[in-house]
């Protein structure tokens, strides 16, 4: 019994089909396809070949192949490389452009500085830099247009380095421009400092001239004390200068008070006697002014030796100031306006009001002005009169206050003191100065002159004595007595 064999399809038909497929693939590679060109043969399930239709635009170029993909990647890479090189070239061009502009800016700044003072070498150097950079800009322009036209597409490997060098050069040019600007500002600053010094000198000269003119117009208003005086440089000469300055205002106010007495119909001889001074001898009516000066000094210099000048309220509310505080107040008030000080609420305000109420008696004020408005306003503390009489008194008080501040600015060990001479004491040229001529003082009387009364007190600083001003009279010596003629 034979074994059953499987049924095979026709072997010849199978081989024919394989042959057709191989032939078709070969024709496809050569660009030819069997059929009408719009389709290819495909083996069906029954072994027959069927024609498949393709789109009309489909050709052999549309069929993907491995070499074509590699070529596309290569083109894409080349395009990216060209774009990168172009970008680097543009960045390098811009960096060079900015570097040239900064160089021109620095050269222009240098050119400006070289104009004043005129520096021909610097001007020529800056001009050469400007010309060189303009040429560089022209070359950059031509290079840019050539690249735009496609005539020059250099693939320089150091474009990035050129860009960095250009940026570095730009920073150097900027630093140079800043240095030139800083140098110019320093020069301007020195010029302004010089101008300030010159203006300060002119101001100082103008102030000196102004003080000189004011001194000639108003001899009693100028204080001959340096403005830049320091505490360590104090000496008795400064105290003497301020004392003379003060005495002028005392004399001026005494004359003003005597004039008001005359207007009010007073008997000046009786007035001199009423304040404790006999009418001056020798028949000199003008000597009565010394009696009034003596009265003013006696009141205004009262308590001068005390730090607080006898002001109870001020001493109670303020601790004992040191010499630096006294000197600082002296420097502030020696040139200040009296109206400004009176409205500042300082201790001088209290001093001025207190001294006025003591010096000007109510009956005296009423006879001068017909009322007591001055006294009422000063006593209320709400303000001060603005009349000529009170302004003259306030200016005198200000100068005495300034003298007091300077007096206590000296070292405590200097032995600073104020003194006056009692009536009837022998006249001494060491401690006293006569306010009248010696021949008038001695007269025809016998014996040495004696003190009639002290006009202005004296001061002593260590071994230095500032003489007090006295009115001397001749004394007639009798056994055991001395009388004043």
UniProtKB/TrEMBL annotation:
Keywords: Kinase, Transferase. Residues 418-471 form the GIL1/IRKI C-terminal domain. It comes from the Eukaryota. The keyword Transferase applies. GO terms for molecular function: kinase activity. The keyword Transferase applies. Residues 87-215 form the DUF641 domain. One of its GO terms (biological process) is negative gravitropism. PANTHER family: PROTEIN GRAVITROPIC IN THE LIGHT 1 (PTHR31161). This is Putative serine/threonine-protein kinase WNK4. It comes from Anthurium amnicola. The lineage of its organism: Eukaryota, Viridiplantae, Streptophyta, Embryophyta, Tracheophyta.
């Amino acid at each position: 019994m034979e074994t059953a064999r499987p049924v095979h399809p026709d072997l010849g038909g199978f081989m024919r089909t394989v042959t057709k497929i191989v032939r078709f693939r070969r024709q496809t590679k050569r660009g030819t396809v069997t059929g009408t060109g719009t389709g290819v043969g495909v083996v069906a399930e029954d072994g027959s070949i069927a024609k498949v239709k393709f789109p009309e635009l489909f050709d052999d170029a549309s069929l993907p192949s491995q070499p074509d993909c590699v070529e596309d990647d290569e083109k894409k890479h080349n395009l990216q490389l060209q774009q990168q090189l172009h970008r680097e070239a543009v960045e390098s061009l811009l960096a060079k452009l900015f570097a040239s502009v900064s160089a021109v800016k620095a050269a222009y700044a240098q050119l400006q500085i070289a104009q004043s003072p005129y520096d021909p070498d610097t001007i020529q150097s800056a001009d050469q830099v400007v010309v060189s950079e303009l040429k560089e800009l022209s070359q950059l322009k031509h290079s840019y247009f050539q690249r735009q036209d496609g005539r020059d597409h250099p693939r320089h490997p150091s474009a990035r380095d050129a860009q960095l060098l250009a940026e570095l050069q730009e920073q150097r040019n900027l630093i140079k421009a800043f240095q030139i600007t800083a140098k110019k500002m320093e020069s301007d600053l020195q010029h302004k400092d010089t101008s300030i010094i010159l203006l300060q000198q002119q101001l100082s000269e103008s102030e000196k001239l102004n003080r000189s003119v004011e001194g000639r117009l108003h001899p009693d208003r100028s204080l001959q004390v340096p403005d830049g005086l320091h505490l360590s440089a104090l000496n008795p000469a400064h105290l003497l200068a301020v004392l003379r300055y003060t005495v002028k205002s005392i004399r001026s106010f005494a004359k003003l008070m005597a004039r008001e007495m005359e207007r009010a119909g007073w008997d000046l001889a009786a007035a001199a006697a009423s304040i404790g001074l006999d009418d001056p001898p020798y028949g000199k009516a003008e000597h009565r002014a010394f009696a009034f000066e003596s009265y003013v000094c006696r009141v205004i210099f009262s308590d001068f030796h005390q730090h607080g000048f006898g002001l109870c309220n001020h001493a109670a509310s303020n601790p004992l100031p040191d010499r630096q505080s006294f000197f600082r107040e002296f420097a502030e008030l020696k040139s200040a306006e009296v109206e400004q000080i009176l409205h500042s609420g300082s201790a001088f305000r209290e001093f001025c009001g207190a001294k006025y109420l003591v010096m000007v008696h109510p009956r005296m004020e009423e006879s001068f002005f017909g009322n007591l408005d001055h006294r009422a306003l000063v006593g209320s503390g709400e303000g001060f009169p603005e009349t000529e009489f009170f302004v003259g008194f306030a200016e005198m008080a200000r100068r005495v206050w300034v003298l007091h501040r300077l007096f206590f600015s000296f070292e405590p060990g200097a032995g600073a003191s104020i003194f006056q001479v009692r009536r009837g004491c022998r006249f001494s040229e060491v401690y006293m100065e006569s306010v009248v001529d010696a021949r008038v003082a001695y007269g025809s009387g016998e014996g040495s002159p004696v003190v009639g009364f002290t006009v202005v007190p004296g001061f002593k600083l260590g071994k230095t004595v500032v003489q007090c001003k006295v009115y001397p009279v001749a004394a007639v010596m009798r056994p055991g007595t001395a009388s004043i003629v």
